[in-house]
Amino acid sequence: MRFVDDDELELMLRRDEFTREDVRVALRSVRHGHKKEEALAYAETLVPDADYLTGYSLSALVRADITDAEAAREIKKNKAFCTRLTSLLPSILRLFNDRDNLAGLFRMIDDCHGDFHITAASPRKDRQARETQERLTNAIKATLKAAEAIEKANQLLDSEFDGFWRVYHPYGERPLHLSELIGQLRMCAGVGEIVEAKINLNLYGPFKALFLSGNDSRTTVVEYAHHMCTMWNGPKLVTTPGSQFADLCSFLFEAVSGQAEESLSGAINRYARSDERKQWDRDGEEEVSPDDNFVTQKNKTRVAQINIKTYAAMARFPGLSPMAKQLLALRLEDEADQYEAANKAYGPNQVYLDQLNSEQIATMFKEAISSWHPKKQEDFNDLMETQISTANSLEIELGKTRRAARKFGIDG
């Protein structure tokens, strides 16, 4: 099975034309790469052409989280996407003036395809918002109820809790006492109240606060097109029909949906006026130079300022419990400390891994795990050496076990 690295993919994407096999190899490489060869080989024994699956679906098939029939349907969908992209990719790439990191642009096109179908299958935003807020309210009530119930049964549970904690966490972490668990449950309920306040105050809009996409799949395509254009110097976002930006949206929409010659003028107008577009443009204006050695401090001060404004507004929200108010006061104090520390930090600084030599990188990781129990450090080092291979093997074994169990009518 052939894979290409990013350098080979860059050269491939500079061509004027592509074969279907070119695009298949490109998709296989960005979704899976050599590290997934073992998983792909096993998946091929279950369904043909498994390399067309996304990374998420490949793992789901291997683990038997989805059926072979479900995997086959996704393969069929992705084959069609590959065929369309073969003919449309040259037209899409020609609209961008920045030819650096075309592999990244290709990944965004693939991500757009995945998000388009997720969005198209999602419920309406208002329904999602209502159901999500109901789940949050239920979680707060259930957490407080659990804390109260454990507190009432404290005398029965406390004598055994510490002992079982130690055997359940064998690496020598400090035991969590039952009273601390009760406190953490109440803290969790307080965090839930704070999230409710954020939604009700409408600081960023209810849908953005709840991380909801809705089911406007056309606007999803337009948003991706705008992001690509700002990152790779593509056409400017204009609402004029027949513009180069409109052409890009149409090409992209055809690639991900299979619907040709569709006008996305309505979606372009909606996105052009949206808070998401304004936030993206604002973030771009505030973006610091990657060569700025004070970039870490500047980002920290900007984030701290935003958080201070947000949490101060939520602290004034009526009806918060004493726990929620205490949490907000502590968070405001912490954000103020971080803002002050970032402003006073000395520099310039080494802020990217490529600015560090191998000895500095090794020291950084060594310091990060130095406080761990020796056995845990040893296990971590072993895991770092075999992580990918072990993860793939475990997923395969899990899938085989589940499939064998289901043959005997056991739902594993």
Count all strands and give the number.
0
Count of DSSP H/I helices: 18
Distance between the termini: 31 Å
Helix-and-strand structural type: mainly alpha
Shape: globular
What pattern of helices and strands is seen along the backbone? HHHHHHHHHHHHHHHHHH
Tell me the helix content.
over 70%
Average pLDDT figure:
85
Beta-strand content estimate = under 5%
User: Unreliable runs, pLDDT <50, ≥5 residues?
Assistant: none
Radius of gyration based on Cα positions = 26 Å
Quick one: biggest sheet? none
Provide a brief overview of the structure.
By secondary structure, the chain is mainly alpha-helical. It has helices spanning 6-13, 20-31, 37-44, 55-62, 68-93, 102-120, 125-152, 154-168, 178-201, 206-209, 217-232, 244-257, 265-272, 275-286, 295-315, 322-344, 358-369, 374-407.
